[in-house]
Structure to design on (393 residues):
């Protein structure tokens, strides 16, 4: 019997898209969605490295055979995009400029063509491929809200009234802005302070950066769970939890919590019929450089602190979307820290889980990916134990 924590569940992958030249371009935040007829659609922002911005565009890929083959659709002039289904209609959150206003476009031909962008919310709002909550009357999606001199600093909950057009700005609203919480000193050793990072090639300005929230519901409670970069990835596996009050349209920080892989972008897949949640994230091996890799990482151009390791992509499951059990390794680069399977998104396709990875294979940088790869885990629910058994219900 193979061990899914040792032998990856979906190491074999299909390349859906590749940048023209990894020395000049990279994929930023690709996202995967599934249409009602099973068609898979990828929106992949292609950015230029410094000095090579002519290739900036949104590339669109489509598969009608479960992800085995991909056709490229006409590209669009956007820096960010997240497509999703809204009551059977294909819509896409886009931004002509990253961290700009909240814009929406729609498509009636499975991504072949799109409407002109409509700004439905003003302000420096941003998010990528994270979980949204389709409630009975509304759709909720927590977002980053840039504060002066503090990128990703604030958090808001956006709300869309179902039954109205997604291009109607009056159908959209936004909650209060939540300021970043005070980081307890016990959560950091201040190994990598800004301005004194002898082992790092670059890094975040603030000791705490929280970003890219997932929005879920647990037993009637709407929550946003946010990735936390603490001390340049030195304190790994910590997420920030926020709770949302629907009646008051208010979002509030609740607590920090342990969360496997929360130092990097993670993706939650609610499985409400099975009363479960699935989550994809990157685990790290040496976040505080106790093994002495730092100097060599800096020499070779490693992006960020030692904890910014993205070569181990894992799948987890939970019944409360807070405490996680390991399901197995999805894919890995065991011999190369400059490679990565990261920034995952995923869709349920009947009994399978189809995963999109922003993948770095030949770019020489674990952050700036040169590939969009697609991985399929067959019969993925069989990987989970029955955690409800014996519970008080």
């Amino acid at each position: 019997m193979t061990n899914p924590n040792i032998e990856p569940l979906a190491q074999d992958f299909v390349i859906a898209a590749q940048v023209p030249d990894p020395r000049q371009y990279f994929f930023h935040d690709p996202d995967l969605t599934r249409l009602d007829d099973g068609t898979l659609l990828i929106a992949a922002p292609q950015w230029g490295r410094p000095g090579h911005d002519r290739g900036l565009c949104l590339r669109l890929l489509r598969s009608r055979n479960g992800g085995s083959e991909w056709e490229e659709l006409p590209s669009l002039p956007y820096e960010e995009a997240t497509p999703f289904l809204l009551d059977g209609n294909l819509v896409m959150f886009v931004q002509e400029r990253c961290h700009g206003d909240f814009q929406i476009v729609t498509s009636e031909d499975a991504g072949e063509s799109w409407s002109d962008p409509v700004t439905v919310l003003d302000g420096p709002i941003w998010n990528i491929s994270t979980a949204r909550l389709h409630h009975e009357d509304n759709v909720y999606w927590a977002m980053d809200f840039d504060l002066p001199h503090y990128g990703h600093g604030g958090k808001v909950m956006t709300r869309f009234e179902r039954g109205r057009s997604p291009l109607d700005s009056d159908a959209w609203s936004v909650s209060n802005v939540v300021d970043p919480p005070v980081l307890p000193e016990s959560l950091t050793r201040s190994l990598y302070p800004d301005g004194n990072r002898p082992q790092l090639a670059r890094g975040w300005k603030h000791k705490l950066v929280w970003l890219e929230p997932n929005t879920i519901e647990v037993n009637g409670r709407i929550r946003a769970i946010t990735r936390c970069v603490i001390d340049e990835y030195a304190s790994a596996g910590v997420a920030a939890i926020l709770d949302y009050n629907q009646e008051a349209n208010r979002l509030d920080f609740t607590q920090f919590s342990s969360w496997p892989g929360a130092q990097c972008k993670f993706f939650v897949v609610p499985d409400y019929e099975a009363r479960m949640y699935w989550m994809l994230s990157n685990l790290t091996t040496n976040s505080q450089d106790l093994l002495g890799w730092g100097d060599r990482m800096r020499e070779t151009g490693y992006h960020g602190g030692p904890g910014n390791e993205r070569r181990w992509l894992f799948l987890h499951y939970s019944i409360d979307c807070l405490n996680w059990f390991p399901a197995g390794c999805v894919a890995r680069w065991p011999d190369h820290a400059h490679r990565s399977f990261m920034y995952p998104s995923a869709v349920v396709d009947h009994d399978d889980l189809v995963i999109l990875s922003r993948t770095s294979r030949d770019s020489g940088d674990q952050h700036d990916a040169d590939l969009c790869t697609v991985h399929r885990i067959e019969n993925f629910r069989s990987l989970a134990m029955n955690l409800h058994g014996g519970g008080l219900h």
Q: What stands out?
A: The chain is about 0% helix and 45% strand. The longest strand covers residues 150-161.
